[in-house]
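writing this on my phone so excuse typos. first protein, seq and then structure
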Amino acid sequence: MQSVLVVDDNPINLKTIQEILKEMYKVYPAPSGERAINFLEKTIPDLILLDIEMPGMDGLQVINRLKQDSRWLDIPVIFITALEDRVKEEQAFQMGAVDYIHKPISAGVMLKRVHLHIELQQYRKTLEKLVELKTTQLLRSQDTILEILANVTSYRDNNTGGHIQRTSMFTERIVNHLFELGFHQYRLNRNYADNIIKTSKLHDIGKVGISDSILLKSGKLTKEEFREIKRHTTLGAKMIDDAMRELGDDSTFLLVAKEIVYSHHEWWNGAGYPLGLSGDDIPLSGRIMAVSDVYDALVSDRPYKRAYTHAQAMEVMWEETGTHFDPHLMHMINKIMPEFAAVSNQMKDEAFALI
């Protein structure tokens, strides 16, 4: 049974309203604004009937208090008054009232108004739950699609599966650390941060368009082969562009994915590819991904090199800070870089080798 809190300093009015509503609703009477607030600390009703003119805390003061507290913000409030004061009526609506009933009270009018607004409130709550459910389902679908797409690349190369998972974990640590530090120059809100973490797994998706003879070559690449493999950035960005156009979707999720794909090989000094961006013109997502990507390449075995130790990798990366890497970013994340070594040791390439 839905409940209604009735707030009126007149005991006769309280009794009358209770008699009108008691067959359909649980009614809680409160003889003052102060008593109503005390009641709300313990119980949240489905609707409030609130008299305007009361000694002490009047109805306008009560609703003002309600709208300042997240626990009570969404409770529908219907004002009851004998006054024909249009100014106060307008003020009540501006403060968040959903309706207005004049005294003397009509039982039929009150029942219909109360029923209408409780029904609307229940509908709103149901709709919010449905939206929340659909949003959760969409996020799960996004995560599943990301894993599938990331695995497309890993099936081309045994080394890639481990690289994707490790760089994703490096990126997550960097992003969360920056978010906790709250460096405003990076404009890193929670939504953008989460999208960087999720879509970092797609940074090499464009490699599906590179031939096996180059992608799986055991020796050092020729200049022509290197030019070809650099195309994975633009190929990947085009894949995402095509998906956005096909889906009619320009959501932040896909835009961040595209940023990472095309910009994770850009250099702070402009010497990178494919666009030769420099400094803050490189998206933050790309600058973060560059750190994760290069660190993993340095500490991993490759056909043309042995894995560096963490210390050796950091030495190389500090030498390239200000040329390859964003110097502000590197100094801010220096504290958490030792965590990368632990991730690398726990997630070696052998664990991702295809059978």
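second protein below, same order as before
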Amino acid sequence: MKRIIDLVIASLSLVLFMPALIFIYLQIRIRLGSPVFFIQQRPGLRGSPFNLIKFRSMRDETDATGKLLSDEQRMTPFGSFLRSTSLDELPELINVLRGDMSIVGPRPLLMEYLPLYNKEQARRHEVRPGITGWAQVNGRNSLDWPERLKMDVYYVDNHNLGLDLKIILMTVKQVLSRQGVSEEGHVTMSKFRGNNDE
């Protein structure tokens, strides 16, 4: 049932947001250049890798050695707007149609984090990752890592259609308020460095 609902919502959303998708695509080409999409391998169900698709929100500027500059240096006002409104996430609807993701579930993080989770935190991969999730509507990137991962596991243990609907409704409020977009002192969120909770 969850998969059917994912397909229906993703299909209808792509049709509904098509004008916005086209407009954002053109704006990124003009303001940031090519490529328009940010594609990165992320862990999905049971940690299996898939290619996450987002709109690009940062410039690809590097230092003299060819290393990417910090997020703060590469972020533009337009990119900040895309992130704060979550419009950069719209292409992930394609990931939902492919079966890589669900509308609701723990956010797909980085592949490099997989060996850093303790056994309890690793349980976040027992369900498909989502465009939005329990952690996103309860603080988003303003949460510290232990609390964020704890909320992901809470969703794994308690997910049902009622909770998914609640999260979707809370997501609308969260996006409109633009709260929790970044961790204090960061334009996004600091990297997860592991823990000693095992």
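The chain has a mean pLDDT of 88. thats all i got for now
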